[in-house]
Design a protein that fits this description.
elongated; 326 residues; 14 strands; 27% strand; alpha+beta; five-stranded antiparallel beta sheet; 31% helix
């Protein structure tokens, strides 16, 4: 009901009477009053005047189901949307809910994470009110080796969204980091659960640095935010809704073909590693090669010093530039 009341208030430039809201929704004045107070607690500035009703003065930059559903309809994103002011990790919550039977396309969004994780177990710092942290629960009908490519599909959708919001020159550091002006803007962590050799569920966790301007000293040389690079405050609900639209489009294409043939060219166009020397670390051993692009399975093609081309799988190795983060 809060979603419907918020829609009424946003559509009207003037006051909306409590009686009109009651009649539209078929609820009592008390129920409307409770919802208005709930919206105020969420940060909405709502004026109330006797005999006039309610008027929305200002909306906060918050990530709630109401804000997201206003921007992306159930037809566009059929999955359930769950939003939390604070949680340990959206990936962990998605996995917990998956084990309890949550459906395909369920979305878990947090304003703050207390135990966020990046790839290879690294800590992902997640302050409140600035950035976007979310996980998508999928139950795809595909082979496990095909599902591993979804990290790259997600990265492409992320890059397109960043470009849409002023991040021209956005690049992808294979397989899962979004880079702007040489610094990390977004990370992606994909986790999969198998049952009898088939996918039970898959969770894609994404974290965008959006509106913060300061980073801890140990990561300030390699991390940035969209606001820091563009100088613009980004409405987070708008950005997330647009990402979901891009992701839906890319995921639909991938699901039809179950390889990266349709997105390979667009991905490589943004690939920061391409034609650059990279250091490959696997099982304690290090090798240097020249990155040449990706194949249709999402593996990084690296020309080694002996002239042979090696297809590197994202789950097996760590790849980085020789002279810094990228």
């Amino acid at each position: 009901m809060k979603t419907k009341i918020l829609e009424f208030l946003k559509k009207k430039q003037d006051f909306v009477s409590g009686q009109a809201i009651c009649e539209q929704l078929g609820v009592s004045r008390t129920a409307v009053w409770k919802c208005i107070n709930g919206l105020r607690e969420d940060g909405y500035e709502i004026e109330s005047v006797t005999r006039k009703g309610y008027r929305l003065l200002q909306s906060p930059d918050i990530l709630t189901k109401e804000e997201l559903r206003e921007r992306i309809s159930p037809e566009q994103w059929p999955g359930e949307i769950h939003c939390y002011p604070q949680i340990d990790s959206t990936n962990e919550e998605a996995k917990r809910q998956a084990e309890s039977g949550a459906g395909d396309g369920s979305l878990y969004v947090a304003d703050c994470q207390t135990a966020g994780r990046g790839r290879r177990g690294r800590t992902w710092l997640s302050p409140a009110g600035k950035d976007i942290f979310f996980s998508i629960l999928l139950r795809p009908r595909m082979q496990p080796q095909a599902a591993s490519m979804l990290t790259l599909v997600t990265a492409l959708a992320a890059a397109k969204t960043v470009e849409q919001y002023g991040g021209e020159g956005c690049q992808i550091k294979w397989p899962n980091d979004i880079v702007l002006h040489g610094k990390k803007l977004c990370g992606i962590l994909t986790e999969m659960s198998l049952e009898m050799g088939e996918i039970s569920y898959l969770v894609i966790g994404v974290g965008f640095n959006m509106n913060r301007m300061e980073f801890d000293e140990e990561i300030s040389h390699m991390a940035t935010s969209l606001k820091k690079e563009t100088g613009k405050q980004i409405p987070r609900a708008d950005f997330l809704a647009d990402f979901l639209a891009h992701f839906s489009e890319e995921y639909e294409k991938f699901s039809r073909e179950q390889n990266l043939s349709s997105v390979k060219e667009e991905y490589e166009k943004r690939l920061v590693n391409i034609d650059r020397e990279v250091l490959i670390e696997k099982s304690g051993k290090k090798k240097v090669g020249l990155a040449r692009g990706i194949n249709e399975q999402g593996e990084l093609l690296v020309c080694m010093e002996d002239g042979a081309t090696e297809a590197v799988c994202a789950g097996e190795v760590s790849v980085r530039g020789l002279y810094g983060y990228v």
